[in-house]
Amino acid sequence: MGTVDKKNALRAGALAAGTTLMMLLMSSPALALNRDDGDDPGTGLSVIETLGLYVLLPVGLFAVIAGLVMALDKSHQKKDPTSSNIRTKAESKA
To answer: What's the pLDDT tens digit per position in 53-65?
Structure first.
């Protein structure tokens, strides 16, 4: 690696770090403590509800979709009988 690549990597890293730092400084989490007019939050979720909603439900949906894709896959039935006669390696005798 040349020095130009290292300088560009350092410059890109510094830019990314500076952008992230500025975004963190500009956001104000303290404002989340002040309630807005008309704000009516509900009750919080329990640990079981949170795990079910954000872990088990997405994993279950992924499993159902993957199962449907595998069950309805028709590519294994479509075989071309002529493709088995094609040889890719040359048979040369010296």
So the answer is: 999 999 999 999 9
